[in-house]
Amino acid sequence: MKVVIIDGQGGSLGKTLTEKIKNRINCEIYAIGTNSIATAAMLKAGAHHGATGENPVVVACRDADVIVGPAGIIAADSLLGEITPRMAAAVAVSKAYKILLPVAKCRICVAGVPEMNFAETIEAAVLQLEKLIKGEV
């Protein structure tokens, strides 16, 4: 299973996701950063593959089974402008199952979703991925 983790800024969300997923789920983790700091953080956390920038996001989304990242990866100009319109479109149209984490910096609110702290949000994402792999979704 190809799991693509997309993150930007300092990469702390992607780093934590990578660590948790690698420890609990047998899959290939592709770390795609919107900048080199984010990519490096995810690779250091144990991602199997890594690349940085717009084109790697587009290419990785083509055949991903699952895409995980902050909700802003589907919104152009989010993550303080790091998500380009082409990146957002690639994620949005991908046939991959998407696990999106609500992050205040993305300025996206999903009504009805309870507020959780960082650790709770990460745990919810990893649990959702586990359910998907088990065929429970």
Share of residues in helices = 40-55%
What is the gyration radius calculated from CA atoms? 13 Å
Q: Percent of residues in beta strands? A: 15-25%
Name the assembly state: single chain
Lateral strand order in the biggest sheet:
3-2-1-4-5
Secondary-structure-derived class: alpha/beta
How many strands in all? 5
In short:
The chain contains 6 helices and 5 strands; from the N terminus they run E-H-E-H-E-H-E-H-H-E-H.
What brief labels describe this structure?
137 residues, alpha/beta, five-stranded parallel sheet, 5 strands, globular
Describe the overall structure.
The chain has 137 residues and is α/β, with parallel strands linked by helices. 44% of the residues lie in helices and 19% in strands. It is built from six helices and five strands, in the order E-H-E-H-E-H-E-H-H-E-H. It has helices at residues 12-24, 36-44, 54-62, 78-81, 85-93, 118-133; strands spanning 2-7, 28-33, 49-52, 66-70, 97-101. The protein has a five-stranded parallel β-sheet, sandwiched between helices. Strand 2 (28-33), helix 2 (36-44) and strand 3 form a beta-alpha-beta unit. The two termini are 15 Å apart.
Q: How is the topology of this model organized?
A:
Blueprint: E1 2-7, H1 12-24, E2 28-33, H2 36-44, E3 49-52, H3 54-62, E4 66-70, H4 78-81, H5 85-93, E5 97-101, H6 118-133
Parallel strand pairs: 1-2, 1-4, 2-3, 4-5
Helix pairs in contact: 1-2, 1-6, 3-5
